[in-house]
Design brief:
Helix content: over 70%
Strand content: under 5%
Low-confidence stretches: none
Number of domains: 1
Number of strands: 0
Structural class: mainly alpha
Mean pLDDT: 82
Order of helices and strands: HHHHHH
Number of helices: 6
Distance between the termini: 50 Å
Radius of gyration: 24 Å
Largest sheet: none
Length: 181
């Protein structure tokens, strides 16, 4: 991969990662809010009293987020008590895509940092050439001669399998404490 291709790759990974992260994060948060709204009230008076402030908060959020009406309508409604439902599977897939998006962003940041280091080396070489009086190569010529290894998207694989598990455990504990499970 050449320097220019690497630069384009950084922009593409960054844009795709940020767009995917925004969409999946909003969908996941809306799904969680819907789960709290429809799943907290256990039917008895005590759980109804405890659930009311949370339901009012979720309703307030719903009323003030008309820009994401699509997500309120189509985001899955997970049911923690029934694990193998289609809504739970859609929710988990969306949740995992958050970490795939973070992997795209991390890959873009890593490649961007390498390009910054290469830019500094090019500047240093051009300064040395001008100081010594030797023929200075043009910036484009130097950039074209530098091979840049493509780092795989899943080089941060540990983030893709450890982070969802840790966050899932924390969410499961919170759900257990609030009585959703």
């Amino acid at each position: 991969m050449t320097y220019q291709e690497a630069k384009k790759s950084v922009y593409k990974k960054w844009l795709f990662g940020v767009a995917l992260l925004a969409i999946t994060s909003v969908s996941t948060v809306v799904s969680a809010l819907k789960m709290f709204y429809f799943g907290l009230d256990g039917g008895d008076q005590f759980s109804h009293i405890l659930a009311q402030p949370i339901k009012q908060l979720v309703y307030f959020i719903y009323q003030n987020t008309h820009l994401i009406e699509y997500f309120w309508q189509y985001s899955p409604l997970p049911t923690p008590k029934l694990l193998l439902t289609s809504h739970n599977i859609y929710f988990l897939v969306g949740y995992l895509f958050i970490f795939v998006a973070l992997s795209f962003i991390a890959s873009a940041k890593s490649l961007s940092a390498r390009l910054v280091a290469i830019d500094k080396q090019i500047e240093d070489e051009m300064i040395r050439a001008s100081v010594t009086g030797s023929r200075a190569r043009q910036r484009d010529e130097i950039q074209g001669s530098i091979p840049i290894q493509q780092q795989g998207l899943f080089a941060q694989f540990h983030k893709l399998y450890i982070a969802p598990i840790v966050v899932g455990i924390v969410v499961a504990l919170i759900a257990k404490l609030t009585g959703l499970i």
